[in-house]
Model the fold of this input.
Amino acid sequence: MTRPRAAVVVTGSELVRGERSDLNGPFYAQEALRLGLQPARIAIVGDDPVELETVLREAFDADVCLVSGGLGPTHDDRTIELVAKVAGVGLRLDEGLEAEIEAISRRFAERMRRPYADFVAGVRKQATLPEGGISLGIAGTAPGVVLDAGSCVVVVLPGPPGELQRLWPRALETEPMRRVLGRTTEPERRILRMFGVSESAVAKALADAGGDGDGVEVTICARDFEIHVDLVVEPGMGARADELERDFLGPLEEYVFGRDGRSVQEVVLERCRAEGLTLGTAESCTGGLVAGRLTSVPGSSEVFRGGVVAYEDAVKHDLLGVPEELLRAHGAVSAEVAEAMAAGARERLGVDVAVSVTGIAGPGGGTPEKPVGLVFIHAAGPMGERPVRIEIPGEREWVRARSAATALHLVRRLLES
Amino acid sequence: MTRPRAAVVVTGSELVRGERSDLNGPFYAQEALRLGLQPARIAIVGDDPVELETVLREAFDADVCLVSGGLGPTHDDRTIELVAKVAGVGLRLDEGLEAEIEAISRRFAERMRRPYADFVAGVRKQATLPEGGISLGIAGTAPGVVLDAGSCVVVVLPGPPGELQRLWPRALETEPMRRVLGRTTEPERRILRMFGVSESAVAKALADAGGDGDGVEVTICARDFEIHVDLVVEPGMGARADELERDFLGPLEEYVFGRDGRSVQEVVLERCRAEGLTLGTAESCTGGLVAGRLTSVPGSSEVFRGGVVAYEDAVKHDLLGVPEELLRAHGAVSAEVAEAMAAGARERLGVDVAVSVTGIAGPGGGTPEKPVGLVFIHAAGPMGERPVRIEIPGEREWVRARSAATALHLVRRLLES
Done:
C-alpha cells in the first residue's frame, strides 16, 4: 500500500535564518503521520517570492501540500498570491471573510488609536483567496484556506502555531481533504518509553529481533534522556507487531516505564495520587527544574506541596535542616548531604515522599575528587530510600537537565518498589 | 550586492515525521547569515532515496549546499551516495579515514562484545567519499566531507548536532569554502531586546521610521515574551543603521533592556553582582521556573542563594512565614500574599532582593473573581518594592512561562530604579 504523500512548506524569514525553531513543520508532519499520510519532506523558506514559488511548485507534486505562514496584511506576505499562481488560478475577494477580518481590525485600530482607513488595504489583501479556495475562517487575524489544485490538495494556515492548530481541524473537514483521507487508513501507533538504557542498545535489540519492516515501522529516538520507541503498524499487521514487540522488548522490559506517552512527571504524580502520598523536592544544582517539571502537570497541586531550592549551604541548613557538621565533613556535593536534604524536605515541607539533587553543574566549581558533572540524587519515602550517584559529561544545561530527569525517574522507581 | 545563496538539506526520518525538532537547519542558517551568505531555504527529508535525491538536486542550485545526516553505517544512510550521484562523480574509499573509523569501531565492538567482523562493511561504507571530496575527519563515528561540485560547494556533516558543530569549523577552512566566503563580507549585526511592548507596536515604530532596506535589514521577533530586534547591516551602511536606530527606537527606548543579546536573568544577576546584592525567589504557580532560569546562568551561585517553591498554603506559612490570617483573608492569590512571600523570602533565605509569584495557572482553580491567568508578582529589596498584577490569557504552560519572564523583568526594573 502506498500512502498519499504530504509535503510541508513553512514560510518565515526568521525561520529560514535559524532565529527561531519551526514548530509548524513538526506539527503538520505528526498530523500527516497520524492520519495515514506519508510525510515526504518539510521545506522552510523566507519571504523571497522566487524561493517560495520554487518550493511550492515542488511541493505540489505531493498529494497534499501543507503550507504555513505568509498570510499577513503586508506586501511581503505572498503565500496566497503564489499558491494561486502555482495552481494556475486567479484571485477573488471573499466578502464574508472580509467582513470578519474588518470587525477584528476595527477593534484593533481602536485599541491602537489609529484610523481604520490605515487597515483597509491590508484587510482586503487578507480576505483575498485563490479562485475556488474554501475559506476556513480566521484565527487571530489571519485566514485559513483549502484549495483543490487538481492532483494536489493545498492547505494554507497562519504561521503562529496556536492559530494554525486551531484552524487545522476545520481543514480536515473540507471535501477535498476528506477525499484524500478516504484513501488512507490511520495506522495503529504503539508508544513505548524507556529510561536507563542507551539508544544503541535498543537499536541492537531491534536488529537482534529481526528488525522492522513487513508492515511495522519502528522509530527509536533519544529524547530528554529517555528512549522513545514508536511502532507504526499498518492495518492488519497487529499480530506481527505483537511478535516483534515481544522479541524486541522482552530483554528490555525492566527499562520500560510507559506505554501511553505519559511523561515521567505524570507517572510520578499519578502514582502518588493513587497511593495518597504527597511529594516535595530539595534541589541544589538543578535549581528548581525538578519542581518546574512536576508543576507543569495540571492538577499537580493535589500531590506536590512544594520544594526548596537550596543553592547556598546556609539555605540547605536553615530551610532543610542539613547539619552544618555534615556539610563541613562531606561537602555539599555528597551522598550524605543528598540524603539529609531529602529527609529535611520530608520534614520541613511535611511531605511523604521527597527527592533531592546536589551536584556540580559547571563550568566552574569542579575539583579532581569532585569533577563537574558529579551529581548525587536521593529519593526517600515511607517505602524506603534510593540513593544515586552519577557523573554526567557535558555542559551546564545538559548536566542540570539530565540530573532533573534522573531525579524524576528515581522517585518513580522508589514508588514502584 | 547579491550574497552567495546557501541551501540547507537535513535528513532524518524522525525529523520529517515531526518526532523531533531539527537543530541543524537553524545552526547552518545562523552560521550562513553570520558569514555573509544568504540562507535561502531549509529542506528536511527522511531516508527515502527519491525524496533525498530530489531535494539535493534542488539545493545544488545554490552556491553552497549544507547537508546534515544520513552518514551512518547502514544501508538506509544514503547521503554520500546521492551527493556523488547528483554531483556526477563516482565514489572512492578513503584509506586514512577507514583506519580512523576502524580504530573507533574496534573499541566499540569490544565494549559491545561483538566480533569486529560485524562492523567491516559499515566501516568501509562510512569511509567511502565522493570522488574529489575533502575528508574533514570524524566526530563520533561519522565523517564530514566537503565537495566542490562546480557551481556549488557541498558540505556534508553528521546528524548529531554536537558532532556537526564540532566538524563545521574544519569545513570553513577547506579551499572551496574559503573561495566562496572570499566573495562575502560578514555583515554587522545589532541586537536589541525589549520587554513590555507588543510586536505590532514595534513593527509600527519601524514603519513610521521609514522601514528597513537600503543596506539595513530589520527582523522583529517575539520570543519568550520579549521582542527581539535584529539589525543586519551591510558593510558601509553603519551611518544609515545609526539613523534608523535613532528614529525607530527613540520612542521605544524605555522598553529596551539589552543591546548585547544577554538574557534578562543574566542582566539581573550581573546587576546584583555589581551592587553586592544577594537574590532569592518565592514561587507558587511558576513552581521553580524563575529559580530555574536564574540558575541556568554559570556563576549564578555568587548571587543567587536559593528559593522556595511554596505550592501549598502550609508551605507558604511554614517556610516563608506568610501569616495564616493573610492567607485566609485575601487568599493565596493576592497582592498581599505576594508581598508577604517576597518579604518572607528575604528574611528566611537571608537575601537582599527577592521576587515572588502567586497566581492561577489553570486549567482548574479559577473563579469569577480570580480567573485562570490572574497572577501577582512582587519584587522587594533595599531600594524599594515593586508589585505587579497581570492577567495572562492562554494555557497553563503559557501562563507559567510568561509569569516567570515578568517576574525576572520586575526584578530588573527594581534593580534599575
Observations:
- The mean pLDDT of chain B is 93.
- The radius of gyration of chain B is 27 Å.
- Chain B touches chain A through 82 residues (CB under 8 Å).
